[in-house]
């Protein structure tokens, strides 16, 4: 039973080429190379992810459907561009919507995210990748996600640079190597947790 | 000439009571006590602040008008609730829109924010105030804001608590004291920079 | 084969009662309750952890022995007090010493930390727990540690408070509950990875 | 009366060439170019900065003398290398020692740092500058430092790179430009606050 991977892209742009997509594609290839099933990317800017901290913010809210797709997978590839040295506002919004997991526990105290693993795909013209992975790891772990070894696949250019990852002629070798390791670790861990779920610890 | 203060509230809620408003009001009172002119609060959730990193994202974008009010003041009170231990997604969106300042410099390389000072008003049920002020300070300083001594006025309850600041019977003495110091420092510094602007350093 | 847990305490104090120890003890009890073997805590301030980013900084360096004990366990309980809203300088030093893992990979590209899981025990008088877990998660994940669901067990008092965790009359119920869940998740995950190690992805 | 600048270097190395020194020298030149008086750099690794949160940790502690030199200046250039995407452990230690300022207020509630401004000089092989400036701004602002517009002068190479700033053949134009702006802003603000100190707000 193949591990199922759901990428999301939190670029601010509704459409058009996205460097975050380019990084997600590097991970997509790595996951496919080890037999994982990778779903089409959810582009959050093209959906109406309403502000709020519940799982359904009412009419017109696209989060319930996105949430379902995310939770149907074993691995979440959380893609975000860096803006102001930090994850995008759309990335933050997605994290906020998962705050609802805290009150959606089962009889063993387990949130819907338990047993699922997350991987970050982070790109920017320049510095901010570590700040971004720190914030994503903390927020998602707080709401039940597990983080496999080497769970951040990122690229940024030299300080104060303006090159886009999508415009690089080739994927840097270190990025490609990191992507293969990150995908392997994530798939391995998701597989283990699928077979042997966290037992939970009371309600 | 009184120092002019513009508070913004980045709560996720379009309307209704807001703990962030309650904290902004503590600062409002402190500013009024020293003769500053405090404008009505801009509630970002009630506006359509479009995603993007320019100063005008086109039809329906309420940022241009909000931007104008923010830049008409000498002091920005940046109010945000804590969600997931971090500033709200709306707070991040406002910061992103200020990324445009980087390319809006005058002949001396000065951004529209030069000479203006920022103060944070941060509230949450629990932990995350320092994480929030760190992110706000870094992002806003990168785009030209000056940060006076003691520029974070915050309240959070005990770890994993659920009390709202707006429901406290009285404002804690330490919050009140911090607000008075923060307002005094901000008004003093804004006054100095109004009279003696940063000279800039070339284009 | 019981899971082996190694707690470390990064308090700044060489000796005496430590709130970080009090939190580690909450986790110790939780781990023992599920049959894990918990080693005596390594108090970093009582050792000479030299500055540097290698695994042995020469004469008098106590890191090589501490490193050996940490890597002999399956779970690391990373205990730190909050100072200035952030982990202690000693916590940062311990993280820096693990930077060496990056060049200590085996033939499959796996660092010595692969397959091991980390849990944070964080205490402070006030705010800073989320900022601390974000920094610890990011730094340790970068050097190969895996982070199980709910990997931060923390306590802080109300904003700008001065109560010490060690002086609380009883452990708050939420802390106790979190500790039991965190320990259960960590032990479960460490057990899985012990039996089925990460395969790695080339040298 | 010339503005007085005190640089500190929080490299982990006791001696030898330091990229952080190279960045401090860029700022030194910029400050000298506008007539400021720049003191010799305090290399923290060469001193015995004891762990703790008081202004004097007893016998052998070099902090009291370092503290005196820092407070004798109007501008602090806080230099740190990036390790694990974050400021060095020595940088954190220096920040911790300033925690004591909180209880060293005068009759108007002003800490010894009031009226003084701070500038960051941050270098790393790769990503982590924004994470570092966020942490430094937050910690130092909490203990009374003022942060002028554009207070982080940094350089990092491309993601996962290994080039040292000190080995660059020339200082990148953007770094040089930023340094001149940062120095100009810092000196201007320090000058204003020297002439017109923060009034404080009660004890």
Name its key features.
homotetramer; alpha/beta; 35% helix; 203 residues; Rossmann fold; 7-stranded mixed beta sheet
Could you characterize the architecture of this molecule?
- Four copies of one chain form a homotetramer.
- By secondary structure, chain A is α/β, with parallel strands linked by helices.
- Chain A has a single domain (4-195), classed as Rossmann fold (3-Layer(aba) Sandwich).
- Chain A is built from five helices and seven strands.
- In chain A, strands 1, 2, 3, 4, 5, 6 and 7 form a seven-stranded mixed β-sheet that branches.
- In chain A, β6, α4 (129-142) and β7 form a beta-alpha-beta unit.
- In chain A, α1 (19-33) crosses α5 (173-195).
- Chain A is globular, with a radius of gyration of 16 Å.
- The two termini of chain A are 30 Å apart.
- The mean pLDDT of chain A is 97.
Sequence-ordered SSE layout with sheet pairings:
The structure is a homotetramer of 203-residue chains.
Chain A: E1 4-9, H1 19-33, E2 37-38, E3 42-43, H2 63-72, E4 75-83, E5 86-87, H3 89-97, E6 117-124, H4 129-142, E7 152-156, H5 173-195
Parallel strand pairs in A: 1-2, 1-3, 1-4, 4-6, 6-7
Antiparallel strand pairs in A: 4-5
